[in-house]
Amino acid sequence: YIPSLCATFTFPQSLGILGGKPGASTYIVGVQDEQAIYLDPHEVQP
Asked: Global pTM?
């Protein structure tokens, strides 16, 4: 699914991807070298 994930972020309208399961969630904000850059909304960021 990595090529599809990378393609999603080529669109200027893309703001990210929200996903997860009960008790855990992630917000994927971009990709670099086929690795996802994500935030955990449950952790405090400085």
From this structure: 0.72
Q: Which long-range contacts does 30-37 make (Cβ < 8 Å, 24+ apart)?
A: 31/5, 31/6, 34/2, 34/6, 36/5
Helices (H), 1-46: 2-8
Q: Closest Cα to residue 36, out of 12, 13, 11, 18?
A: 18
- For 1-33, b/e burial (b = at least 16 CB within 10 A) is eeeeebeebeeeeeeeeeeeeeeeebebeebee
pLDDT of residue 45 exceeding 70, the answer is no
* Residue 15: closest CA among 29, 2, 25, 4: 29
Query: pLDDT > 90: what percent of the chain?
Result: 41
